[in-house]
Amino acid sequence: MGARRETILETIQQYVDLVATGSSADVVALYADGATVEDPVGSEVRTTREQIAEFYGALDGLEQSARLLHTRIAGNEAAFAFELVTKAGEQTYTLAPIDVMTFDDDGRILSMRAFWSGEDMLVS
Amino acid sequence: MGARRETILETIQQYVDLVATGSSADVVALYADGATVEDPVGSEVRTTREQIAEFYGALDGLEQSARLLHTRIAGNEAAFAFELVTKAGEQTYTLAPIDVMTFDDDGRILSMRAFWSGEDMLVS
């Protein structure tokens, strides 16, 4: 029967909030067992919880903010654009990827693929 | 080596323009042989040129406008949000899906998956 639309929306909002201001462990907890992460699309797919934890661990301690821009849900899949702003010293890095996710029936993330490339990173 | 980023961007812009104001034959011509269309995600995948032509044929003769909102390209894949406005009599229907496409090395569309659901259709 699939996850409820509201549950998927909540997971996406939590994901965006936690990527910016949560711990990497909080982000990883949104993923189902056996989940995969491909960020950016075309890079090697991370397939273990350890690899996924290492990936998000790179964000720990950074000064970040994020906001959800546009979300579309179809069944147990979703695509959404969000903006992630990272301050590092005098520099501000802004990236607005489009992520595509699939979900299990409890609304946990089964797969994430992030569409972006180097040209999309704005530095100010 | 893959399609050039600029070529993919051109195809996406042409797609959005032609969906709104071109003929369905123009839209179908952007697809490679063997391409697939899943619109919305979760519906039956159209796998033949005839099925794809029939799908876009439903748009012929409608009064429409469209604009590209947000595009992200990664290798030979892309995700983009666009807004399609359809006027029918006194009603205006606005839908802003997120489409995910893969491309061949010439920038023709190999697959299209459109993320949206009925809740996203605005009627005014």
UniProtKB/TrEMBL annotation, chains A, B:
Coiled coil ranges: none
UniProt domain SnoaL-like: residue ranges: 12-111
InterPro entries linked: NTF2-like_dom_sf, SnoaL-like
The name this protein goes by in its record: Nuclear transport factor 2 family protein
